Amino acid sequence: IKGESDRSVFDTVWDRIYVTTLFSFEWKTIGRSIEFALQISRNQPSKVFVGGIAASLMHEAFQAEPHWRGIRFIKGLLSESPAASLQLDDFAEELYSNDRDGTPIEDLIPDYSILDQIRNQYVYPVHDAYFAYASRGCVRKCHFCGVPKLEGDQRDANPISYIVRGIDERFGPKKDLTLMDNNVVASENYKNIIAEIRDLGFTPGAKLHRSGKVPVQRRVDFNQGVDARILCKDKMFLREMSTICIKPLRIAFDHIGVRKPYETAIRFAHEFGLNSLSNYMLYNFHDSPGDLYERMRLNINLNEELGTRIFSFPMRYQPTDLKDRSHIGKNWNRYYLRSMQIILQATHGIVSGEPQFFRRAFGNTIGEFEVLLLRPEKFLFNRVWY
After folding, report:
1. Statement: residue 166 has pLDDT above 80
2. How high is the pLDDT of residue 61?
3. Could you tell me which residues are beta bridge partners of residue 129?
4. How confident is the model at residue 275 (pLDDT cuts 50, 70, 90)?
5. b/e per residue, 286-303, with b = 16+ CB within 10 A?
6. Per the omega criterion (within 30 degrees of 0), is the bond before 215 cis?
7. Closest-CA residue to 179 (of 240, 228, 231, 221)
8. Which residues contact 214 (CB under 8 A, 6 or more apart)?
9. Residue 207, beta-bridge partner list
10. Which of 346, 232, 365 is nearest to 300 (CA)?
11. Model pLDDT, residue 3
């Protein structure tokens, strides 16, 4: 279930209740979900298991809550045997507590039927895709990122074909391939990963043919983005990427210090025909509003020069161990952050790569952008009306 609205769960006596957590700043919402799980368990905390991102990054904070004593908070990936990963007690004869040699939960085929169970509450946007990892962890140790704490050092995962075949057998073929690697181009097995994707049929122009249905275009999405600092070192990386039906190619542009490698990577991508591009832009960390504008504007300049279609997702930095969104970077202030949020609300969170729209939304210079950030919020959102 999603949320606390489905009361039908009280009609069943559950062996075990799992709660997943995402963002640490949603502490209050997570707390409500945990309390709801306790109600469903009829106040038997030993039946409740809480894991995921926030539970891993703030593990000690969760364990310190006295009214959650007895709940098992799982830290990190479920990469050991099921009994070890879930901290099961064999003495208490808990369900599967003797499974100390089985396949790690991390390596099992995901249960896609969960998406059908919540369809009335929420339609997942990427519902027709294989979800997989070609690699886990990252070679970087960026201070703003939780991946090193969650997944550790870079290493290869199970073959993608193993996941794809398993999903095909249980749930039927999917249109897209969504890979959630944190830094796939850092893998020593990179060429083999791309070759495996090609072998699975995800080549440029590929379509999925289903019986009685119109063929649909397939696509590959490295959803977490790729590393410009590696892409710029050798054209091989983007040459290989151009042999699969990737759309869009997502490249991180976290601070102005990586401008040169980022721009080089974009030019290499264009050279190999990869013109549908996206990037993640961190702000509210060590940057300033001018720094953010300069990065956004660079994409517009590249679009005008190369004919690329780059759109951006500015992502507001929050410390990975903070229980709310109160963090304000040293070069920002609360009003600037609110103004940026309002502009992004009007653009649905995306910085359009269309030059005319960008200038209208964010100004034609850093000075104009900073003036916009000082405007009243109603003016920002309803600029045309005013």
Report:
1. yes
2. 96
3. 176
4. very high
5. bbbbebbbebbbbbbebb
6. no
7. 221
8. none
9. 217
10. 365
11. 79
